[in-house]
Amino acid sequence: MLNKPEYLDLIVQYLNNPQDESLHRAVETFRTESVDQEKYFLEIEKIWNLSAKSSRLDGVNKRQAEQHFRRALRNITPNSFSLMKWVSSVAATILIVGISYWFYESTNSSALITKQTFANQQDSVMLVDGSKIILAANSEIKYPKAFNSDSREIYLNKGRAFFKIAKDPKHPFRVLMGESKVSVLGTSFNIDYSPNKIDLDVKTGRVIFSPYQNRTSSILTAGQALTYNIQKREFTARLSQNSDSWLTNELVFVDTPLEDVCKQLSDYYKTDIKLETNQQMVKKLNATFKNNSLNEVLEVLKVTYGLTIQNNKDSIILKTPSIN
Questions:
Q1: Domains assigned to the chain
Q2: CB neighbours of 261 closer than 8 A, spacing ≥ 6?
Q3: Which of 37, 142, 223, 319 lies in the 20 to 30 Å Cα band around 157?
Q4: Could you tell me where the DSSP H helices lie in 141-292?
Q5: pTM of the model
Q6: Residue 85 above 50 pLDDT?
Q7: Rounded Cα–Cα distance for residues 168 and 152 (Å)
Q8: Start-to-end C-alpha separation, the chain
């Protein structure tokens, strides 16, 4: 019968002082007497080893831990027995903490942590695998405390984020956004997610974009980008340019059409900038702006293209010279 407290006390004393030769001999004798006793020892040893990590258990509820320990111990011992005879002892306390660690980790490793930013705020998250996520203003992600499956998955609920993913070929990294997801092995990229669309820009490496289940996926490499219309389930391929300007405070234009320049300036400065022209714009912009104000950038465009700038209440209109 294994319902004798002295058996448990013997094993705990041995595990607490494995160098004691008399305890070692007594435990070895106990283990060799039957298969059940060997199994009993191994299970108690497993729980004891878990208790070594108990310093991480700041959030464990001791009353719940005791209840879970009782249930767990009934499952691992050949016969059910009363825990009350020794639950107040030091040995039992250590074992309770050990099983608490197992329960706490198994129930909380998959719990998601929410990180949210507000207006005019940026924040960053370093994941357990070494990956880094930088959030723009008004953005939200959810991520697990630890990755415990064959893949690494986080959720971008809204807004914009820059991802620098640690390489791990055996565990692909996935960013989930509603029905859509981005899968990578190790790379850096930018996502801007809203209820209407997803903008995906790849800076280094390559990613796989899956718009929804059973839809053909798209592979993007460094310098490539796409815009996905969620309602229409359509996406447009484009070259990646200035997707991380919100992070670097730098705008770089290389052979960029003026119409695209206006779109990127609108996004960066959060101002509606429109181009009105009655001619085909052949001249493209090559320029770099670092920490410049919108007025400074517009002055450069004015000189370069001979534009007329009209400031309205809700927008800025850029007009090209009329063709006579």
A1: 5-108 (no CATH), 112-239 (2.60.120.1440), 249-319 (3.55.50.30)
A2: 253, 285, 301
A3: 223
A4: 245-248, 258-269
A5: 0.62
A6: no
A7: 10
A8: 106
